[in-house]
């Protein structure tokens, strides 16, 4: 037996037994994760943590990619690798995430286009509270030993604040290459709890056109978005995971700065070109929506914090950078 096959036999877990109730529960979890992925400011990764499947999903996704890679490097191990996957988790979560995206895209598109100021105020509160999530994942002694990372935090916030001034206005008819690149970047949010891919789309002015394409079943846009997301999973997520493993403090603090600066895109009072305006007479109502959004995310963070099962790579570890 070859060394590769021998290694497979010891590293691939045996197939799991089918459990109907587990499948149903995972379908519900997948629907919840898919639904919140459409809402700027709420991270699907955070919800996956709350419902207890985040670590398992990443492990199974990694094993699935390894099986696909084995098609080109070690085909004899592929059947065993596929049998060892937790399909009772992967299949229902993936299917019902897609179902949630198509079911909920219409109502969310209507909400954002009909009530733009209200939706921005609501999302502002959500994202503002979400900024603390990557900071909570930093290993405190590393943060104290590297006070210079706060310079990166400020620079990232300033750069994003300026950048969103040019990109936050909704794009009427974005080109397919732009949608492809945006999808590749937005999908990276799936790796890290607290970061919303929908918020990235909103910050670059692509949230409404992408959600509209989902609602209208514009398959050309949907297909390009899916291809971009798959490309991002293959190319960018490995880089992001490497950064989190090797330069955790720098990556997380910089990410928090980017999120903070991007709040510019969610200021409730803007003109059609995303220029910021002074608060209007409706500021009490906007404040109420902002506090509501902040409260929802704060509650989810609290629930995640109280969840006994904490995934290993969300628990801060020493940063060698």
What report would you give on this structure?
- With 321 residues, the chain is mainly alpha-helical.
- It has one domain (3-314).
- Helices cover 71% and strands 0% of the residues.
- It has 16 helices and no strands.
- Helix 2 (20-37) runs parallel beside helix 6 (87-114), helix 6 crosses helix 13 and helix 14 (219-246) crosses helix 15 (248-261).
- It is globular, with a radius of gyration of 21 Å.
- Mean pLDDT is 78; it is low at 1-10 and 309-318.
- Keywords: Membrane, Transmembrane, Transmembrane helix.
- It comes from Corynebacterium maris DSM 45190.
- InterPro entries: VCA0040-like.
- Pfam families: VCA0040-like.
Keywords:
disordered N terminus, membrane, transmembrane helix, DUF368 domain-containing protein, VCA0040-like, transmembrane, 321 residues, mainly alpha
How would you concisely characterize the structure shown here?
InterPro entries: VCA0040-like. By secondary structure, the protein is mainly α.
Mean pLDDT: 78
Helix content: over 70%
Structure class:
mainly alpha
H and E order: HHHHHHHHHHHHHHHH
Report how far apart the termini are. 41 Å
Rounded to the nearest angstrom, the radius of gyration is: 21 Å
Q: Could you give the count of β-strands?
A: 0
Binned strand content: under 5%
Keywords: Membrane, Transmembrane, Transmembrane helix
Protein name: DUF368 domain-containing protein
Transmembrane segments: 31-54, 87-109, 121-141, 147-166, 178-207, 219-237, 249-267, 287-305
